[in-house]
Design goal:
The complex is a heterodimer.
Chain A: H1 2-6, H2 9-45, H3 66-72, H4 79-109, H5 115-130, H6 133-146, H7 153-159, H8 161-178, H9 181-189, H10 194-205, H11 207-223, H12 226-231, H13 240-250, H14 255-275, H15 277-289
Helix pairs in contact in A: 2-14, 3-14, 4-7, 4-8, 4-11, 4-13, 5-8, 8-11, 8-15, 9-10, 11-14, 13-14
Chain B: H1 2-40, E1 41-42, E2 45-46, H2 48-57, H3 59-90, H4 98-110, H5 113-124, H6 129-136, H7 151-176, H8 181-188, H9 193-221, H10 225-230, H11 242-252, H12 256-285
Antiparallel strand pairs in B: 1-2
Helix pairs in contact in B: 1-12, 3-7, 3-9, 3-11, 4-7, 7-9, 9-12, 11-12
Classes of the chains: A mainly alpha, B mainly alpha.
């Protein structure tokens, strides 16, 4: 029935217009569903406490920056320290995982070890990826306390390798796999060693992929709570998410500073996402399937 | 000559993999072994049998295990369906804003679960935005996080809100990489929109869906931060999943040995799923 009705030329055009219109509406609805909760938290963070939980909710209120000032002048826990700790831990954890993971990914991509070994290696990575971090946090707590590393950024940087290293190996291996081996062979004919080939020929071609991998790992570390929650207990090493959780657990209804804390943690993520937006779909498609 | 070169390449390969291998052994394999030791021995005495009996009799443990399964199954199902719908609706977006729109839609999946917890704590507050909308619709004010009958459903909803975009982007990548010929051929043969979806698009998408599902389930077993912030496992253990329970046993009640056993149970559940799924689903479709 539908086919005969819409089968003719002009009807078909109408139908297409209608579908395009519905598509637009769907985009708007999905964007609202996604963004309103986030925007609401942003709005609350700029609001006077008495204008926060009003019924009906007020949309436009004169903004105040007080909550952000409070946050960074350590009224509710030392957020300046949390921020700096998070930046340091994220940077070092990502650098370490790239430094260790990329050579491994190249070796695996070029079949430079026996098949049995590469299967074991990749299998272990898959298992480690599946282990929930909160379970690993328990032995980590014990081990790092024994080593005198409890409540240090070093412990966090090391512990986070369990989260990011499998990612680096998988993603970089797929990016390396995309570079044709004929290039390697050409380089080796010219007298370069394998490592020189990797460094001078393959790596420069994988810069965008490496960048996307780094940003993915950065987001992963930035967002973590369980490991940091368990392995730190003072502003010496506590990260942003830990600061947020202890804030929430101590002051359940201080909505405005709580929102400001959430916004402070989410702004860099927005920035990261925009940085790699063009590669997002690709990154998910190729990187994760590995 | 070729053989020695082959050997040299092997040696370089081992050197390339060595740092990562050491790091994995020291930071992942050793800790898991250490955890088995923690669960088996307490204060120098063998404790595994005691913990085994306790585990069997521990009502909260069984509740937490059940809650974990409920949470994983319902939230991942919701995410897969919603993600597929999003992807089919937004497949065709083109133009200069397309990447930005995708980036914005992906935002919840990129946020820290801790931040998402705060977002929804605020919205679910008895005098918050959700209840205001609900009263407008005539539903009335509900205690979304404090009512034992609603708390798990609310947590599942928030998880779906956060992770649908991830599934969406994943499926979108699959759709984009899909060959156009089968669809075109079916269109020429006069297939309807539904037939096209049911007999062409969906079968071609099956490997993508299978992989997305695996990532989501593994990640759902990890869920922790949001629940810690929004309900802390309550009310009346209604949202206590295994990760929350083992955290409390270890770090609040300081029973490290039993906590380690619970952690091993969570790891075992995750790995059993991963292995089964990988063997019986991924190998078949992907």
């Amino acid at each position: 029935m539908g086919r005969t009705l819409f089968g003719h030329g002009s009807m078909r055009r109408w139908r297409r217009l209608l579908l395009a219109g519905l598509g637009r509406i769907a985009i708007v609805v999905i964007l609202l569903y996604t963004l309103i909760p986030i925007l609401w938290v942003v709005a609350i963070s700029f609001r006077d406490p008495v204008r926060t939980m009003t019924i009906p909710p007020e949309i436009l209120v004169r903004p105040t920056f007080r909550h952000y000032q409070d946050l960074f002048s350590a009224v509710w826990g030392d957020f300046t320290a949390y921020y700096i700790n998070t930046l340091i831990v994220c940077g070092l954890a990502v650098l370490l995982s790239l430094a260790v993971g990329m050579p491994a990914a190249f070796g695996l991509s070029r079949d430079m070890v026996r098949r049995r070994w590469s299967t074991i290696f990749l299998g272990t990575m898959t298992i480690i990826y599946a282990i929930p971090p909160i379970s690993l946090a328990i032995p980590f707590y014990d081990i790092f306390s024994d080593l005198g590393l409890f409540d240090t950024k070093t412990a966090l940087v090391l512990a986070y390798q369990s989260r990011v290293l499998p990612f680096v190996v998988w993603m970089m291996k797929t990016f390396f796999d995309e570079i044709p081996r004929e290039l390697d062979d050409a380089g080796m004919v010219d007298g370069l060693t394998r490592v020189q080939v990797a460094w001078r020929i393959v790596l420069p071609l994988c810069v965008p992929g490496t960048f996307a991998t780094a940003v993915f790992c950065l987001i992963l570390v930035w967002n973590d709570l369980p490991l940091a929650l368990v392995l730190t207990n003072t502003p010496r090493a506590q990260t942003l998410t830990v600061g947020i959780v202890s804030f929430v657990q101590e002051n359940v209804t201080l909505w405005n500073p709580m929102s400001a804390a959430a916004v402070v943690a989410l702004v860099p993520i927005v920035f990261f996402v925009l940085l790699i937006q063009r590669r997002l779909v690709q990154g998910f498609g190729t990187g994760l399937k590995g | 000559m070729a053989e020695s070169r082959e050997k040299g390449s092997q040696r370089t390969g081992i050197l390339l993999l060595l740092p990562a291998g050491i790091l994995i052994s020291a930071l992942m394999i050793y800790p898991v072994g250490h955890m088995v030791g923690m669960a088996a021995v307490q204060d120098g005495k063998f404790a595994a049998s005691r913990w085994g009996i306790l585990l069997y009799r521990d009502g909260v443990f069984w509740r937490a295990l059940w809650n974990t399964l409920i949470f994983v199954v319902t939230s991942v199902t919701g995410e897969m369906i919603a993600g597929l719908v999003f992807a089919l609706l937004l497949w065709e977006i083109r133009g200069p804003l397309a990447n930005t729109i995708r980036g914005l839609i992906l935002l919840p999946s990129m946020l820290s679960p801790a931040v998402v917890g705060i977002v929804w704590l605020l919205l679910f507050y008895p005098f918050g935005l959700v209840n205001w909308g609900a009263t407008l619709l005539g539903i009335g004010r509900l205690q979304y996080l404090a009512d034992p009958r609603l708390a798990m459903a609310s947590i599942v909803f928030v998880d779906i809100w956060q992770w649908t975009p991830f599934v969406f982007i994943f499926i979108l990548a699959g759709l984009t990489g899909m060959p156009a010929e089968p669809r075109e051929a079916a269109l020429v043969d006069g297939a309807s929109g539904w037939q096209l979806f049911r007999y062409i698009t969906l079968p071609l998408l099956r490997p993508t869906l299978a992989v997305a599902l695996m990532f989501r389930v593994i990640d759902a077993f990890r869920a922790f931060d949001k629940i810690l912030i929004m309900t802390n496992g309550g009310p009346a253990e209604a949202t206590t999943i295994l990760s929350i329970y083992l955290y409390k046993v270890s770090f609040h009640y300081q029973n490290w040995s039993y906590g380690a056993l619970l952690a091993l149970v969570l790891i075992a559940v995750t790995l059993v799923f991963q292995w089964t799924y990988d063997t019986f689903v991924i190998r078949k479709v992907a």
